[in-house]
Amino acid sequence: MTEVTAAPATAPVSPAATARVLAEAARAVDAPGLVLAVSRNGVRTVHTGGSAEPGPVPRELMAYELGSASKPYAGLLLARLVAQGRVRYEDRAADLLAPGLPVHPAVRRITLRHLLTHTSGLPGLPADFYPQAVPRWSTDPYGGYPADRVVRAFLRARPRHRPGTRWRYSNFAVSVLGHTLAAATGTPWEVLLHQQVLAPLGLDATRVRPGPDGTDAVGHRRDGTPVPALDTGGFTAAGAVRATPLDLLTFLEAHTGGAADCPTDSSLAAALTEVTRPVLRRGRRHAHTHTLTWFHHPSPYGPVLFHAGATLGQQAFLGFRPGTGLAVAATATRRVHRADTFVATAYGLLTETA
Prior knowledge:
Elements: E1 2-6, H1 15-26, E2 34-40, E3 43-49, E4 64-65, H2 71-83, H3 93-97, H4 105-109, H5 112-116, H6 129-133, H7 147-155, H8 171-185, H9 189-198, E5 206-207, H10 236-239, E6 242-243, H11 245-256, H12 266-274, E7 280-282, E8 288-290, E9 295-297, E10 304-310, E11 315-321, E12 326-332, H13 342-351
Antiparallel strand pairs: 1-3, 2-3, 2-12, 4-6, 5-6, 7-8, 8-9, 9-10, 10-11, 11-12
Helix pairs in contact: 2-9, 2-12, 7-8
């Protein structure tokens, strides 16, 4: 295992002390490959480990599947397009995707904000997704469900609840958001994400497709068997992002308000501020708070924003404390299971340290 640190003279916390914390935390996680990365005002400490022997490419330079932790990228993209005046949060998705096409009244009322905040009334996945996915659930459930099918499923949907009235986590909804933004701008999702988010933030090691041989981390089932790279089919916006832990830190540092090089573009700066603002509450006594795209929790050191994700054989965690310069990124190459400690361990690094 290795510790990689970079510390300017003004660092308020010792990288060596942070490295010890990360090494201790790593003992709680069982995975073939593990990366725990912390940034404090741009001072980075990265711990790599795991039960498998490392390959020729250092673990912190491998690209990992983010799964649902891709959604903050979709959220930042929407917020930037809104800041540029190209779309509005209250624009209706069906009007942008299929102007004039008859749809269910509830579908007609679904806005871009509803899609991003999981308040659209749509299910987690389309009803007709499961028959084609179940036979290959552990190998390739999404690849056989392309973009046009996602759009068609949306346009013929019958939401259970009126948009804006209930919170229900939905990969379907965020995927529809991606296709809607592509239609509204006349730009493919992958290109749009690169132009508006990845390139401006300098995320050169972040992509939505597998990279050259040997540069992508390999996921594993619980028994250690390798699994193929994820094909998200038409659900790209909801879960296709792949990134190195170092790029994840760069993405998070842009959100913290404490990094040395904040974005100078006004629309990007506005978007980064917008996605950190709480916009809704849900659950019993409205105990759960959310921003446009991040889960929002209190902590002894102020609010924390985070999102986790999992694919067939990998996990990721992204989190930060706004205004403090603290960010945590973590990746693991083992499929999630009921007794898994990965998310709790990464979350603890965000909430239990000053």
